[in-house]
């Protein structure tokens, strides 16, 4: 198992299928966070990305993250990783992909502050075969774990994702703002727009993470900064 799996909260009963990492160790107490899904939002959707050679940043993603960094709030990656649970790749492979992501982001002056990942899935193999694990989106566990560790104010935070389950996870965590991008799987996920009223959260649509960040800046989000 990768040595990078180091930042687990004491109340988490196991670490085989969970990853929680504080990359910058900043003081974020009392601030909102910018939560981002990974595949389809920051990275091109390739389906179970387990090798860094297949990693491709979505156009404008690094620049959008740099804007988030400039706002003085934590940029948080929250990603379901059932490919690990299904045996397609390992946590070490995940770490290699993440390191390549950090390298490419750093070349453009941007970075991620926190990473949370969940390998559990109902169709996974033992020990990852857990139906509806609290950390797996649409459940809010990853968001809540990072918020607790960093002291974030969730009702003022925002999540950008490409799946309806991202929006559900945000709403379930108490966020009041989400943006569904049309990159990745977002084009097909837009079919769920009729269900927006079921979420106690404002959800808008954007063509990509770049346009999502422009929308947030136009709204002068976050207002606490």
Shape: globular
Structural class: alpha/beta
Task: Find the count of extended strands (DSSP E, 2+ residues).
Answer: 7
Helical content (DSSP H or I, runs of 4+):
25-40%
Oligomer: single chain
Q: Between the first and last Cα atoms, what is the distance in angstroms?
A: 38 Å
Mean of the pLDDT scores?
Answer: 89
Taken in chain order, the helices and strands follow as EEHEHHEHEHEHEH
Strand order of the largest sheet: 1-4-3-2-5-6-7
As a whole number of angstroms, the C-alpha radius of gyration is 16 Å
Give a nutshell description of this structure.
With 225 residues, the protein is of the alpha/beta class. Helix content is 29%, strand content 15%. A seven-stranded mixed β-sheet has the order 1-4-3-2-5-6-7, sandwiched between helices.
Descriptive account of the structure:
Strands 1-4-3-2-5-6-7 form a 7-stranded mixed sheet, sandwiched between helices. The protein is of the alpha/beta class. Helices cover 29% and strands 15% of the residues. The protein starts with 17 loop residues before the first strand and ends in a 7-residue tail after the last helix.
Which helices and strands occur, and which strands form pairs?
Blueprint: E1 18-22, E2 34-36, H1 61-70, E3 75-80, H2 82-85, H3 91-107, E4 114-118, H4 141-150, E5 158-161, H5 164-173, E6 177-181, H6 186-189, E7 202-206, H7 209-218
Please supply descriptive tags for the structure shown above.
225 residues; alpha/beta; 7 helices; 7 strands; disordered N terminus
